[in-house]
Amino acid sequence: MDTEQAEAYRAILQQQLEDLLREAGKTVSGMTDEHENFPDPTDRASMESDRNFELRIRDRERRLIAKIRAALERIDEGTFGICESCEEEIGAARLRARPVTTLCIDCKTEQERQERIG
Ligand SMILES: [Zn+2]
């Protein structure tokens, strides 16, 4: 991958990172004023399951943020777009759809197959 392409991915990744951090910030501030009056136990239960949902989302966001940061590091190192398993270049279509990926489609398919067996 040439520098120009790598920098285009850097811009995409940084935008995704900013969006995620902004969303995560919203979730956190939404959670600080949750102590409103919900005397009805049903309301409280649904509020708690909403909160579990938020925590799961935030966990997913955290993992994605870590992946984006790792991808940005790979751009700095010049290893971005190289499959970490077979060291072949990852297809452009796959990278465009999922710039944080570290595996080419063949290795990803193989990994998923192994996971199903295991
Ligand atoms: Zn591969």
Automatic annotation (TrEMBL):
Binding site for Zn(2+): 83, 86, 104, 107
Family: Belongs to the DksA family.
UniProt GO molecular function: zinc ion binding
General function of this protein: Transcription factor that acts by binding directly to the RNA polymerase (RNAP). Required for negative regulation of rRNA expression and positive regulation of several amino acid biosynthesis promoters.
Protein keywords: Cytoplasm, Metal-binding, Zinc, Zinc-finger
Positions of the Zinc finger DksA/TraR C4-type domain: 78-113
Disordered: annotated span: 29-50
Protein name as catalogued: RNA polymerase-binding transcription factor DksA
Any Gene Ontology CC annotation: cytoplasm
Pfam families documented for this protein: DksA_N, zf-dskA_traR
Primary localization class, coarse: cytoplasm
Keyword Cell inner membrane in annotation: no
Domain of life: Bacteria
Organism whose genome encodes this protein: Desulfuromonas acetoxidans (strain DSM 684 / 11070)
GO biological process, one term: regulation of gene expression
Positions of dksA C4-type zinc fingers: 83-107
Bias (Basic and acidic residues) ranges: 32-50
Start and end residues of each DnaK suppressor protein DksA N-terminal domain: 5-75
Subunit structure: Interacts directly with the RNA polymerase.
Name of the coding gene: dksA
Location in the cell: Cytoplasm
PROSITE patterns: ZF_DKSA_1 (PS01102), ZF_DKSA_2 (PS51128)
